[in-house]
Amino acid sequence: MKIAVCVKQTFDTEAKIVLKDGKVSEDGVNLIINPYDETAVEEALQIKEKQGGEVLVVSAGSDKSQDAIRQALAMGADKGILINADTNADEFARAVILSKVIGGLGADLILCGHVAADDGSSQVPTRLAEILNLPHVNVVNKLELNGGTATCTRETDGGTEIIEVKLPAVITCQVGMNEPRYPSMKGIMQAKKKPVDKAAGEAVASKVTIGSYFIPPAKAAGKKIEVDAPEAAAQLFNWMKNEVRVLG
Amino acid sequence: MAKGTWVVVDQRDGKIRKVSLELICKAREFGDEVAAVIMGSGVEGLAAEVGKYGADKVYLADDAKFAQYNTGAYAAQLAAMAKKYEPATIIFGHSAMGKDLAPRAAQKLEAGLVTDCTSVEFAAGKLTFVRPIYAAKAFAKVTVDTAPVMATIRANIYDLVEAPKSPEVIKADIAATDADMYQTVKQFIATISSRPELTEANFIVSGGRGAKGPEGFTMLGELADLFGAAVGASRAAVDSGWIDNSYQVGQTGKVVNPILYVAAGISGAIQHVAGMSSSKNIVAINKDPEAAIFTVADFGVVGDMHAVVPELIKQIKK
Question: What distances in angstroms separate CA B185 from CA A201, B18, B77, B228, one per listed residue?
């Protein structure tokens, strides 16, 4: 089975966000593989371990994205493809850029994280599926493959759904689907020898413009009390009743 | 000439999600006619409900193919209607359905889409969207340069304000085909709860590591029931197996926006705060006076939730 996994390099989720010249500054920020994409890589590796095949990792971005690809290779992926693309491109442009490469891979399954920890957009994999005319299932927390069918368990509003699609398909992964492995020393060494192809990303115009960024003002300190439980409860009750008007 | 704001209605089994109605109300401010797009089976009656909130028109696609939400049929239908009727703007609630349908439809229309918006304002003939990035540590102001302008907007941001109308109902041609239904929904297991759904709840009582076990959540549930609140949880509590992951609030769980959020025994890790920081009023109950949750709380109680919550329950019952 040939599995393509899309990975994005993002800021460390603990990173402090600072604006410089009105834009989000990358100075001193630790870059990591998007945790949701890491889950997708792990899922691909587990499928490969069960039924054999090949795991290709694809990333569109700057040269720095190589680190995200190498980490996936160190986990056990077989090959990487780095598409040189404008990191300011919007979701429409990024999906088109990815499709030009992924469309030619002949993958049976395309796995992605369901959202990127930086932009939180949750668009690119679905757009990619549409461009490639493939079925998709989003925010999956359990994936079972049976011949050419994928059975996906996903959480939706008001409950859980079990959805089946025929392969090839795009599946986006929810964190918690698996426990991503730490690359071993051996894996890290082997990763250095695995091929990472470079592809030129097409120049695609974005449809959306980010006019400006802002950091929300720090919240003014609220009331904080440290008294015995009955007194605390009484004060809290009064606040809920009179300030928030929650209790009748 | 592209005209009109479409609000794509999120309905399941004939029940409209509140966010769709909130957006119809907000869309009335955009200086253009407002149309509700209703796709489903046996859903003609919903036209009256959207009319109550001021929809001028209803585009109705009523067919067995839309009985259960499935991306393929819904996206094909929406795109076909958009190509025929050319709305200027198409908006969705940022619900599970909206999140899933909007990008697929947007790509069919080769349209720009702004997702997970916390606000939308109309000024000088243009819509500007605000959305969180980096777990709401920063925000971006975004505009869409091409037509149609598409966006998904969070629940519980805009108020329901009635403005009753009798909308013109346009029965759309059914463009979706069986071939579009690439997803087979094998099963839908509804979460049966008498409590409100987290993402739509006005009040939430949430527990973390401090709950110490499932019994802690039973106690929080008792508190929640005294004022019609939903129950939520932090990732730590879910990972410990004390409560199902559908209750998780946070970056990898649900994003909530209630009037009141009570965080009991929750430390306030960034990933959790990202899911509840826009709550209008936040209460924190935590043994640790240095817990990060106190930096976002409007009312902080330094104390053990196992001592404070039973006392609060007693107070409310008085």
Answer: 36, 24, 18, 32
Contact A224 B128 (CB under 8 A): no
Cα–Cα distances in angstroms (integers) from residue B172 to residues B50, B84, B254, in the given order: 17, 10, 34
Give the pLDDT score at B251.
85
Q: Does B177 lie at the interface with A, CB-CB under 8 angstroms?
A: no
Q: What is the pTM of this model?
A: 0.94
Asked if the Cβ–Cβ distance from B311 to A163 is below 8 Å, we say no
Q: Do B183 and A237 touch (CB under 8 A)?
A: no
Does ipTM exceed 0.90?
Answer: yes
A2-200: CATH topology: Rossmann fold (3.40.50)
Which of B118, B308, B309 would you mutate first to test chain A, the one with the most A CBs within 10 A?
Answer: B308
The residue whose two tokens read 């817990």 is B291
Q: Please write the tens of the pLDDT for every residue from B42-53.
A: 999 999 999 999
Could you give the CA distance from residue A87 to residue B177 in angstroms, rounded to a whole number? 37
No. of helices (H) and no. of strands (E), chain A? 6, 15
In chain B the domains, ranked by start, together with CATH numbers, are 5-180 (3.40.50.620), 198-317 (3.40.50.1220)
